[in-house]
Amino acid sequence: MVTNKTVYEVPSWSQIYTLLLKQAEHIRREGFNLDLIVGVARGGWLPARFLSDLLENSNLASVQVKSYVGIGELHKPVILQNVSASVDGRRVLVVDDVTDSGGSLKLVKELLLERGALEVKTATLYFKPKSVFKPDFYSKRTSRWIIFPWDVKETLRKLFEANKHDSEKLNHETDKIVAAGVPNY
Fold first, then answer.
1. CA distances from 7 to 17, 121, 172 (A)
2. Is 82 within 8 Å of 33 (Cβ atoms)?
């Protein structure tokens, strides 16, 4: 739920790529020799694809989890689409964009271990301290609401839907988002 206290962070594509370069280096330094990367749909798809390239591992799969219903509104995560590749006997890196509540990553890790994964590590760009699950690898720690380049339109649409009857609040939140770095389209 958006409140007057909601603070936004809007990383650029360049900033995200820099975070992923550092994360790939960290994963290599830790010596995690992964067999498969699983991107959590939808937010984790692009970071997983970039890490696939940076870690020189083209074994890429996906799993779809839904937990958000609006900005800051989380529900219990549920698997909507099962993992798209066998994980049996494999070392798997699960990638998402942000660890908010931690429920999605926890659920996916448990699923993959149940499916026979040898080892499962998790990676996100952002980690929120309130999370009940801490990823093995993350690039930044924040309490802000992150607006990634791949979900600007969705965020703005949800903001409009939630505040369409309160133009003052809508204008205030829109001003905050533009000030944080989203272009004023």
1. 23, 29, 12
2. no
Q: Please, what is the angle between helix 13-30 and helix 45-54, to 10°?
A: 60
Q: What is the dihedral of CA 111, 122, 150, 104, to 10 degrees?
A: 40
Structure tokens at 178: 């533009």
pTM: 0.89
In the block, tokens 């940076």 appear at 54
Query: In three state form, how does the secondary structure of 106-140 look?
Result: HHHHHHHHHCCCCEEEEEEEEECCCCCCCCCEEEE
Task: Using alpha carbons, list the distances in angstroms from residue 89 to 30, 37, 116, 120, 151.
Answer: 20, 14, 6, 11, 34
Which value, in Å, is the radius of gyration of the alpha carbons in the chain?
A: 17
* Six-digit token string for 78: 């549920």
Domains in the chain, ordered, with CATH? 12-146 (3.40.50.2020)
> Residue 135 and residue 128: Cα distance in Å, rounded?
10
Nearest to 130 by CA among 68, 44, 67, 72: 72
Q: How many CA atoms lie within 13 A of 183 on its CB side?
A: 5
Cβ atoms of 112 and 94 within 8 Å: the answer is yes
The pLDDT, as a whole number, for residue 145 is: 92
pLDDT-derived band at 185 (thresholds 50, 70, 90) equals low
